[in-house]
Amino acid sequence: MAALGDPTRRRVFERLKSGPQAVGALAVGLPVSRPAVSQHLKVLKQAGLVSDRPEGTRRVYYIDPRGLGALHAWLDQFWGQALVAFQAEAEAEAKTDAGTDTDSGEEETS
Amino acid sequence: MAALGDPTRRRVFERLKSGPQAVGALAVGLPVSRPAVSQHLKVLKQAGLVSDRPEGTRRVYYIDPRGLGALHAWLDQFWGQALVAFQAEAEAEAKTDAGTDTDSGEEETS
DNA sequence: GCTTACAGTAAGTTATGACTTACGGAACAG
DNA sequence: CTGTTCCGTAAGTCATAACTTACTGTAAGC
Hints:
Two copies of one chain form a homodimer. Chain A is an alpha+beta fold. Chain A has helices spanning 7-15, 23-27, 34-46, 65-76, 79-94; strands spanning 21-22, 50-55, 58-63. In chain A, helix 1 (7-15) packs across helix 3. The longest helix of chain A is centred in the C-terminal third of the chain and has 16 residues, at 79-94. Chain A is elongated, with a radius of gyration of 23 Å. The two termini of chain A are 34 Å apart. At the A-B interface, helix 1, helix 4 and helix 5 of A face helix 1, helix 4 and helix 5 of B. Chain A binds a DNA duplex through helix 3.
């Protein structure tokens, strides 16, 4: 999560969407130097979002599905509450000034 | 995405998981001041991750499912390539010492 | 009408981290 | 064995943004 907070790092990660890439290939087209890309890849790797494989003198990076799964799981935590709160808000908004509501008498218990 | 990069902002967001909360209630238990929480909520709101509803002099914030859906969709972009790359890596690792490859003519075009 | 509580904004400070240049090490080519 | 290419790391600079204090506005309570 924190790893994908930086825009440049997100761009590096999105570049990996088009297949495994070496560091030099990733740096081409980005507005930062190659060492900067290396540092970003290090952060992404520590976050479990990418993995790397040595290929000769090159180093090929690719997206790690496990980190993706962790993010997915973390995100899914919020779905239940989000839907409940959103629906509650819709109802509350419907009766913000509506005095004609007769059936459900509902007060706040602080 | 960028909104959830900050750890404190993430804690505010996670606090909203237990139901809609006012700003003051959210600030209690967090290691930052109440105005700081207000600023974080502003960022989260601009990102579409939370919405707010005025309740008297209080202001109740709750998680917005739409922002959550956008994040979900963005994350799902990577699944396909992630699985393909991971599987390819597994196969490549299985033949790390197998030097009898068919020598596919693959050069970087710099 | 006056006071109190709650929240957003402004201005200013400070710390975090993103970036660059320079260097060192490892693997193929000749 | 020498040279080249590719990558990671170190040290240093600088900008971004997170945080605090102080103030203003608004809604409720007496």
